[in-house]
Every structure is written in structure tokens, then in C-alpha cells.
Amino acid sequence: MFFFSSPSTASRIEAFRAAEQQLLGYAKTRFGHRNQDPSRHEFELFDTPISKPEVIKKSSAKCQIHESSDTDEHSIHGVKVTNTQLGDGGEGGYPAPLVLLHGYANGSLYFYRNLMGLSQHFGRVYALDMMGWGLSSRPKFDLVTDEQKVAAAELFFVESLESWRKKHNLSKMTLAGHSMGGYMSVAYAERYPEHVECLILMSPVGVPVKRPEDDKRLKSLPFYLRGMVSTARYLFNSGITPGAFLRSLPLSRSKAMVDGYIENRLPAITCEDEREHLSEYLYQNSMMPSSGESCLSAVLEAGAFARIPLVNRIPNIKPGLEVHFIYGENDWMGYQGGLDTQRLCLKKPDDSPTVFVHGVRNASHLLMLDNYEELNAALIIAANGEHRLTRDTPRPIEFACNELVGYRSMHKSYRGAIGETHAAAFFRGGRFNIREQNEVDEEEKAEENLS
Length: 451
What we know:
39% of the residues lie in helices and 14% in strands. The chain is α/β, with parallel strands linked by helices and 451 residues long. One of its GO terms (molecular function) is lysophosphatidic acid acyltransferase activity.
């Protein structure tokens, strides 16, 4: 039994649930494959009781949005899709159930466009609100130790995911994380590799090591962008999260900022109602009490570089594990991190995972919303399901470091991959206002045609 901590929080939870239901409705009716029968798919919103992560101070363990009589027990919220035509996952040639982890300040229903299509190949698909976000428990992000800040912050998420896995009795997971969810997926795979059948990282944060040219790139930006980046870094170093900044503004201003973000960053969402409900989902998620969002400065430095970069950690996860990086064509996360990780793993192939890098066309960092069909194909291919894709399904491009391309006859898995020169031409880098940039591109094309 849950009790709302305050009327304002209660109203935000109610608004969040309403937006969640709308997005779930789109998942059921708008974004399935044309050959799929919706009646063969069961959708379920759920709350799973989990043990309280031990890294939270006892005095801070109380959930700020709902609580039970037992403060040692929290909950993970999410959505489950079951394809009744397929096996239960991990049997009969089907992959282990797919578990999707969202990015920073997002939630499980950010995958609403993907759920039905992914169930073509996975008997069960779970999308979770990670600990401290969405409708999962939101204890204060007040951890036991400051001496090992990165490890403690990671355990906040890793131990809650492991407790959730145990409650659902999943011996293996196909674990797929987006952005910060990708970072935490790696942390989980390091600690519990025996439960990960395949690791899929969708535009993961924190992969590369910071290089001198990264600061030079900032100096090359237009003045107004340099100012925005400098302001963001100042807020970051001051411990002010994006959510805290929004909550400090008048309500009309904070809502307008979120609406503008959705409109400018996601031109692929052309339906006004859909855009409105996604904006409400993001807004209410950000306006509820702070919890998981406070991990940002614990694991990252300003500029989204990890304090302990993943490029040096992934090669030490269990040998033979397949790790798939997926980046959008206009992604602000650098694809080079994936290729560098692949290169490091290639140096000790018997002791490291096997790494693949995929590119999704017409997609930015939020590739699950920009081009859900091609992202779905990338996830299904990563889980050895390419044979389940129809001939007309758009497929991602596979890239490989030059060392692999030069010797790909020795590596059957990479025979379709193209090298780093092609990758540099394909990945065009992040665009702050994608809608505006698309309009500029169209104008330039029109002028070229006239000339």
C-alpha cells in the first residue's frame, strides 16, 4: 500500500501516470510491425518490490514519492510486453528476455515506439524506470561513502537491478541501456556477468577518455553555443542538476522549456498529441523529488566524460560476451568510443568481449524516438535475430576499426562492416536544434538543385 508524501507530489504522480498511459496506448496501436497481431501481445505496467540498496544511508532510505510500512523495501516500476506466440525467452532458440534501461532524466516509456516491434524477436520485453526515476522508489541520493564515490553511485543502480532480476527469476538477460542506462548496464555486467547474455549500449555516456582536442572542439563552436556549454558546465560543477534547474523556475517557464526541447530535438514526432504527452511525461518526471538524477556529478566530469571511462572497463568483462554499440547519425555521443573499445578488445581476443558498432540513420542521441524501426533492427540483429527481419526492414550500418576491416576475412562476424573513413563521413555529430538544422539542410538542397 503506497501513501503520497504530499498533495503536490500526489498530483504530479497522477499527471505522470496519465502521460504514461497515453504513451503506452501509442505503443499498443501505432508502432507495431504491420504483420504483427496486437491481440498476441500482452502489456502490463508493474511495480516490483526490491531490497533497499545498502549504499543508501539509513536516514535517507525513505522514498520521497511513496512509502510502505517497511523502509527496507523499495520498488522498481516498469512495463512488460509478452509475445504469446514466442517462447518465454532463452528457450527454443529465442534470446533471453530483453531488459531496457533508459537514459538520464528519462523513463521506461521513452521506449514506447520500440516495444511492439522488439517483441517480434523477444518473448518478453521489460522497460524499467531505474531506481530514483519515474515511478520507481526515490530515496535521497545520500550514499554511505564519499571515498569511493563512483563505485557507490553505480551500486545504487546495479544492486536495485540485481534485486529486481532475482524477483523475476531471470537467469539471463539481454541487457540494453541508453545513455546513462548504457553506462549502468556496463557496471552491472562487470559485477554480474553470468546474468548477461548480450550487452547492448545505445549511445552510451562515459565511454572515451578525455583528450586535449575535446577542449579545442569547444573553442571552435559559435559564440552562443560556447556560452551555453560554459553555463551548463558551471551548473554541473556547482552540483545543480537539470531537474534542480527546472524546479527552480516558475512553473510556466519550466514547462515551456520542456515543450521547446521536445519540439526542437525530436522533429520525427509530428503528431501534436504525441508530442504533448511525451513532453508531459518528461516534465512530470523531472519535477518530482530529486533522487537518481544526483548521480551525474558522482560518475561524470563536466562534458559527459566518465571519471572511470568505460573504454578501459569493457575489455575486462567476461571473454566471449557480445557488446554492441549503437549510435545515431547525428549523435552527440562520439562513435569513436565504440571503435576504440573494439580496438582494445581486438588486442586480446581470447580474454575480452567481442565488440560491434552500428550506426542508425536519421537519428540523434534519442535514437529510439528518431528512428525506432532501424534501432529495433539493430537490437534484434545484436541478439542474433536478423533472420526474423523482413526483407524491407531498414537495417543499421555496421562499422569496424581499420584493423578489423583489413583482416575481416579472418573474422567472419565483421565481413559486412565498413571502416573508419566511412564512419567519419556517416556520423555528422550532434545538432542542438535538429528541427532548425533540418530546415537549413532542405534550403541548401533546394539551392543546389536550382543551380
